């Protein structure tokens, strides 16, 4: 199976490990000349909490998810890294249930591989609060590389 498109799904917690995530993606994308989709999904509540910080006037019903994604950390840093590496990339945003929207995004871009980050949580925390990364992995339409950073905590 050829790898033509890699979806790197990120969230605001990934800011501290953006370089490591980019390196993980570049290990695959660069030698295979694959394109990268930097995907950032967010909920309506998350958007309402941050739209002023992003210098956007639109309320959640009128928002362009791609524009929000472009302005959220760590998307800009990742775009710069892929640009410098000469790797084709695009930025996609989605509004709704994060795990569902990331899986939908993978289907929409016909991703051949996904890279997602996660953080250390106890089994009890996962049972009570769920795990977005775990849900993405279980529903993904393609193989997933899980980047676990033990230093990233809630």
TrEMBL record:
In this chain the UspA domain maps to 4-146
Q: Which InterPro entries match?
A: Rossmann-like_a/b/a_fold, Universal_stress_UspA, UspA
CDD domains per the record? USP-like
- Domain of life assignment: Archaea
Question: What sections of the protein cross the membrane?
Answer: none
The similarity annotation says: Belongs to the universal stress protein A family.
Name of this chain's protein: Universal stress protein
Question: What species is this protein from?
Answer: Natronorubrum daqingense
